[in-house]
Predict the 3D structure of the following.
Amino acid sequence: MARYTEMFTELVRAEIELWNALDAHLIATAGITLPQFQALEAVRADAGAARVQNISERMAITVGATSKVVDRLERDGLAVRTAHPTDRRSSIISLTDKGASALDIADDAAESHLGTVLGGTLSDEDADHWLTVLTALRAHSRAEVAK
């Protein structure tokens, strides 16, 4: 019999422990937090110009929380907001040179750190399998919640 509550608890605990360790590593090596890293990645994924809503969707957090992360990116000189060319209610977030550089450093630091932490347990094939499973779980969960 499946024990979904136990599985959920282990997933959450694993995520918290991985999050905290990676956040500390990114601060030490790249000078940015994990939320800043994820937001910068989201901007890059949108061809270097994203709306807060796009970043929010990619990070799976609220628009309010995303706006606060973007405020910190701006404060730290990692990103800039400019007016959206066709939507007065929205702005476009772009990476600065400093943000692009920090993102490059953080990319390498995150892969190295996670490779050490997860690579000791998972082969590349296992990691690919878990990525597929977790992606499918998230898609299914979102679909069920949307019903």
Notes: Residues 4-30 form the longest helix (27 residues). The chain has one domain: 7-146. The mean pLDDT is 93.
